[in-house]
Amino acid sequence: MGPAGTAAVRDADGAALPHGFWAAVRVWLEKPQVANRRLCGAAVHAEGMVPLGEGGEAPPAPAAAGGGAGREERGGAEELGRLWREVRGQLSLPLPPLRPWGGPSELRAVLRTLLPRGRQPGPPATELVLQDVCNGTVTFLPLEENTEGRYLLKKCNIYQIQLTHIKDEEWSVSVVAPFPEDWFSDGIAYPKLAWLGNELLSKLAKWSVEQKPSEFKSTLSLISVAKYSKVYQDLKEKYKEMVKVWPEVTDPEKFVYEDVAIATYLLILWEEERKEKGLTKKQSFVDLGCGNGLLVHILNNEGHSGRGIDVRRRKIWDMYGPETHLEESTIMPGDSHLFPDTDWLIGNHSDELTPWIPVIAARSSYSCRYFVLPCCFFDFHGKYSRRQSKKTQYREYLDFVAQVGSVCGFHVEEDCLRIPSTKRVSLIGKSRTYTPTESALIDKQITQFINNRRTCAVITCDRRVGFNHKDHCDDVREEAGSELPENETETAGTTWMPGFQPREKVEQIRNCASLPREFVDDVVLNVANLLLNSSPQKSCSNMQDGNTNAWNQGESLSLKEVAEHLNKETLKRLKSECGGLQTLLKNNHQVFEVLNGRVHIRDWRKEKPSSKTKPEVKRRLSAEAFKTRLCWFFIHHPDGCSLPSESCPYAHGTEELRQSQIIKKKKHIQ
């Protein structure tokens, strides 16, 4: 075997290795797509221990044990033992140390299939992976199936990962292979040898000492990854034209492909549910807070009857056609918004409705199920208030929504979706924990839980303004019902929480764009002068109009330091806008650059065009906007603009101003 690469690893706390190495190997076995972007995942078919006899040969397989043996350790191990004996006989070269050495004469075997990604993905690749814990090796043996259904060893793609103890807390991780680079075939399912030695090795070394267990489950843990990959590529191709005609101001690629991914997940989840229950009819659904309605459009097109409801109509709704059922309506949690004939309720970034969806599902019918993808943090009564500092806010909120589902009598399952969003954990209620005869008891439990949450919120609010209440919400749970006003108790049968505030029909613009121009200009000038007058000044040479001048770049300050220099009225006005001071400064990107919480004066000589934008789009946008606005630096900076007039995209004086082509187009359309 020849080495493909070696990386040194130092275990700083003396606890990560070798345990961390096996955790890193587990990532590569189960989630290879995090390292190899050409893969969409791996399907693990069987896992268990395979025995080795003296000299590394496997003894005859023992007789099958009676009873319902689990796939991983009994049935799986027996099948893997048979497979290993077949493959071991085909090895014409030694694979040290695949033999017992000072430890148990067993190897842990995993049979997996690697799944390439892409519109026209390559064929899946099957591997038998052997882990020798005693000797710190993991050997990957590629297999191919012959016409008789037997696996044959593909010797051209064999490689082994080794962990070696050097001294003290120093270790090395190596990749070795018995054959040269040109024996490694496709570079997709079977990575090139150079990639293994450079990319994979560095990732394994990093993962081995990180010791940062994820708060969340692996992606797509409840459905088939292979099936997801195929369906997703088909739907992505089918609905890719939506990106070109997207009429909303939101990013089309993000929102289109995110909804395609969510639709893919639901379609597979529902297909597997039909198989489990022996159903032929496709499930019905209602999407509460459906937004742009694309998810509803896709599910309707794929044969599922259902509708979407949102408080505000979107422009894109008119493009879907009559087959897509969308309603503009306000949803108030109560008896008037139940869905007894619906199989599934969907809450995709449903904001204030998120915690209510398990409740609505539980009270709609005993057979109603739900799927929620929480994003913004809402309780039953308003914004969610944190209660546990040891968890991240996101993890705490997910646990709260899961708790709501449990209180409502659901077996709550969690899964992580593959979508372009930081909030991608879904919670699913497919089955109940109680019998239909216990529905009244569960309904009473739900009511008490909602009232307790409301009472605790009131007490928390009162504490903030100085009232003296008991320290724990548990102490007042028995009094929750009596603390509701009389008129609210009477209406509890129709509206479950009087005072519930749905989102506003007309969306408020709170991104500093609606602030008066004079106010914004004043803040920009104050902050710029603050940076320019801070010492020491950062200056650099500038050639303009034939003269060499020192152009003042000013100093960088943190957002906190900038805020401390602004008056209270200005800050109060900015705080009423989403993002506040930071948003205003980022909006004025001609003047400022905000990086990692620090504010800088922008130097346009250092600007490079974004690599994310296509060249033809860059040229068009540049031509349309060129010289359509005055240059702030030409007017306000003590040294003028750092660029000569012909290079600056902004006008150096009113005589250079030209009318925006974008405005002309809008006038023409009108």
UniProtKB/TrEMBL annotation:
Q: Which stretches does the record call C3H1-type zinc fingers?
A: 625-655
Domain C3H1-type, by residue range, is: 625-655
Enzyme Commission code = 2.1.1.211
| Signal sequence, start to end | none
- Intracellular or extracellular location(s): Cytoplasm
A Pfam family of this chain: AdoMet_MTase
Q: Which UniProt keywords apply?
A: Cytoplasm, Metal-binding, Methyltransferase, S-adenosyl-L-methionine, Transferase, tRNA processing, Zinc, Zinc-finger
| Principal location | cytoplasm
Which intervals of the chain are annotated as region Disordered? 51-76, 478-498
Listed PANTHER family: TRNA (URACIL-O(2)-)-METHYLTRANSFERASE-RELATED (PTHR21210:SF0)
Primary role: Adenosyl-L-methionine (AdoMet)-dependent tRNA (uracil-O(2)-)-methyltransferase.
Q: What family does this chain come from, according to its entry?
A: Belongs to the TRM44 family.
Q: What is this protein called?
A: tRNA (uracil-O(2)-)-methyltransferase
Organism the protein comes from: Willisornis vidua
> Which taxonomic lineage does the organism of this UniProt entry have?
Eukaryota, Metazoa, Chordata, Craniata, Vertebrata
